[in-house]
Amino acid sequence: MTTAVNGLEEVKALAGRDLGYTDWLQIDQDRVYRFAEATDDHQWIHVDPARAAAGPFGGTIAHGYLTLAMLIPLMGELLDVSGVRMSINYGLDKVRFPAPVPVGAKIRLKGQVASVDEVAGNGVQLTVDFTVEIEGSDKPACVARAIYRHYA
Hints:
Blueprint: E1 3-6, H1 8-12, E2 18-21, E3 25-26, H2 29-39, H3 44-47, H4 49-53, H5 64-69, H6 71-78, E4 79-82, E5 86-96, E6 106-119, E7 123-134, E8 142-151
Parallel strand pairs: 1-4
Antiparallel strand pairs: 2-6, 3-6, 5-8, 6-7, 7-8
């Protein structure tokens, strides 16, 4: 379920809040191919199913940065911020890829608001701890701390 907030005061009230989980999203080979084209990363573990079948993962896997990029659309399922002049992705503090995402697997995002701090320019900085889970796996695909800024 999406958490909806309106304005900076409601964003500030998110401090410490569990944002829950998104729906599951299947990562298919076509998405991996398109990401490889966009980034010019054509490593065989991502784009050669025949060779990858005999490789260390038993098949093709998603790029780690593809998994990270999925934070963008999945975050929209967790949080909707309205009533602000501008919102920006300010960056990441920490990113790790503990487990690969096999092509065909489903992932989902879990979010926890770590902090909300005021910033210059009539804004707030929202820091969110994310975990990208793989259906049926004990290890996450990605753990990341993302920082967003919202300005009134």
